[in-house]
Automatic annotation (TrEMBL):
Cross-referenced InterPro entries: aa-tRNA-synth_II, aa-tRNA-synth_II/BPL/LPL, Phe-tRNA-synth_IIc_asu, Phe_tRNA_ligase_alpha_bac/arc, Phenylalanyl-tRNA_Synthase, WH-like_DNA-bd_sf, WH_DNA-bd_sf
Positions annotated to bind Mg(2+): 424
Record-linked PANTHER family: PHENYLALANINE--TRNA LIGASE ALPHA SUBUNIT, PHENYLALANYL-TRNA SYNTHETASE
Biological processes, Gene Ontology terms: phenylalanyl-tRNA aminoacylation
Organism (species): Halovenus aranensis
Record's subunit section: Tetramer of two alpha and two beta subunits.
The EC number(s) this enzyme carries: 6.1.1.20
Recorded name of the encoding gene: pheS
Cofactor note: Binds 2 magnesium ions per tetramer.
Domain Aminoacyl-transfer RNA synthetases class-II family profile: 244-497
Protein name: Phenylalanine--tRNA ligase alpha subunit
Length: 502
């Protein structure tokens, strides 16, 4: 009997008395597991082998788990430091032990939580006592980590559950295929099996030489199961950003770009935000270790902005009557919003002087020191937009939002008046989540105040907004937690299967 070379190798490697895994055969014959699986399916069709399938749990260490397997668990380090400090006889200060155990950051909380859970001792009012008879060498979690690091299996499901809760392992399932030689297969081997000279693809050389007419081509089983392949794809949030850009360009807007790190002058001062505003402190934004200063801010704009802050604009204008520091304004900062791009464009610094009407937008990242939750991230995408024209009103702004969000199937917008230092009137936008029914804030907007526009020498109306791309995606797709989409807790299966709604 003549068979393709790979089929011959698989047939000879198979056993009639026991099942052999495809991966083991692949390693033995020097082929890829996919090729061996394909050959096994073809042999099964000929009745020469039987194919079996089973599902196996696969456990692998996370990066944190690998570190603990090599260096030990934080709670054990705390115990050892406490025992060495005499905490078995009398309480020892926790602050002292943290330093001696070499713990810092999240490791401190991890150590404390598991120290007491495992009965290694107690922590009371900042003092630590330990059980001198505790057996650290029998710590089941550390033993399991070391076993997994060595490539061996752990059978204790309770321990694996605990390691999973701690984020020290990843658990997955994989399909294992096995091959068993049939009676016909044994007979074929006894009668003799030879590798046929077959060709598995048509090449330019075969065509030009004419050999394609005489060679034997490999048979392909188009019904055979194939391994799952998960190709790379564009991130769902990036797809949503591209969709937003398409919609806004279709509405007549031009895209604008600008620096992520910019002078505080463009980020806040031009927006008529006082220099002691909470949003300009490190409670709300991130600090730059060596911020430096920017020198290319036009002096005439600086003077007009300073005057607006100090004295206001117009006969009835009121400034803040508080100190204004030009050095502070020129310091570089990581933007907490993308309205700095709008300020640069309105001032003529980006594209030169602009005459109305104008429409611009951007979909860029901003950074804030927020509390992480289902709708907040430390870095996020803001949909910045503005329209410059004569005699704009809130109705124009609301109509723009209605048209924009209808493109994503969102028709139940709600508006709430609010306060912004740079817009008056101002209002926030809300949309209702399609799955939870919760009303979610999705943006902020308004008509720019004279105190912002006049220093930039803009003498017509400008309406502007900052919308949240991530929250738009939540309303459009039904995602309930933005951390599943973007960040360190991302749900990879969601990203592989989610489709952006057009």
């Amino acid at each position: 009997m003549q068979l393709p070379e790979t089929q011959v190798a698989v047939l000879r490697a198979a056993d009639a008395q026991s099942q052999r895994d495809v991966t083991d055969i692949a390693s033995e014959v020097g082929e890829q597991p996919q090729a061996v699986a394909r050959a096994a399916f073809e042999l099964e069709e000929r009745g020469l082998v039987d194919l079996g399938e089973r599902t196996e749990a696969e456990v692998t260490l996370t990066g944190e788990g690998e570190d603990y397997a090599a260096d030990g668990l934080p709670e054990l380090a705390l115990y050892e430091a406490a025992l060495a400090a005499g905490a078995a006889e009398e309480p020892v200060s926790l602050g002292r032990l943290i330093g001696e155990a070499g713990l810092d950051g999240d490791a401190v909380d991890i150590a404390l939580a598991n120290f007491a859970r495992k009965g290694y001792g107690t922590v009371d009012s900042g003092d630590v006592t330990v059980d001198a008879d505790a057996d650290l060498e029998s710590d089941a979690e550390l033993q399991a980590l070391e076993t997994l690091a060595a490539g061996d299996a752990v059978d204790d499901e309770a321990v694996l559950d605990q390691l999973d809760r701690r984020g020290l392992i990843d658990r997955d399932e994989r399909t294992v295929r096995s091959v068993t030689l049939t009676g016909d297969g044994v007979t074929a081997l006894m009668e003799g099996v030879e590798a046929a000279e077959t060709v598995d693809r048509l090449t330019p050389e075969l065509l030009t030489s004419g050999e394609w007419e005489t060679v034997e081509f490999t048979d392909y089983n188009v019904e055979a199961d194939a391994d799952d392949i998960e190709p790379g794809r564009k991130h769902a949030l990036r797809e949503m950003a591209d969709r937003v850009k398409d919609v806004l360009v279709g509405m007549g807007f031009q895209e604008m770009q600008g620096p992520t790190v910019d002078a505080d002058f463009w980020i806040h001062d031009c927006l008529f935000m006082p220099q002691d505003h909470p949003a300009r402190t490190h409670w709300d934004r991130f600090a730059i270790e060596n911020p430096g200063k920017i020198d290319d801010v036009p002096d005439d704009i600086v003077d007009r902005v300073k005057t607006a802050h100090s004295d206001g604009v117009g006969e009835d204008g009121e400034g803040y009557h508080s100190p204004w520091d030009e050095d502070f304004a020129r310091q570089l900062a990581l933007r907490g919003h993308t309205t700095s791009l709008t300020a640069r464009h309105l001032a003529g610094e980006a594209l030169g002087d602009l005459e109305p009407p104008q429409r611009f937008f951007s979909v860029e990242k901003a950074y804030r020191n927020d509390e992480l939750d289902a709708t907040h991230l430390l870095e996020f995408f803001q949909i910045e937009g503005w329209v410059m024209a004569e005699e704009l009103s809130v109705r124009d702004l609301m109509g723009t939002f209605t048209e924009f969000y209808e493109q994503f199937g969102i028709t139940d917008l709600e508006f709430k008046p609010t306060y912004n230092p740079y817009t008056e009137p101002s209002f926030e936008l809300f949309g209702r989540h399609p799955e939870t029914g919760e009303l979610i804030e999705i943006g902020n907007s308004g008509i720019f105040r004279p105190e912002m526009l006049e220093p930039l020498e803009v003498d017509c109306d400008v309406m502007a907004w900052g919308l949240a791309l991530e929250r738009l995606m939540m309303l459009a797709t039904g995602a309930e937690d933005i951390r599943d989409v973007h960040g360190t807790l991302v749900d990879l299966e969601y990203l592989r299967t989610e489709e952006v709604i057009y």
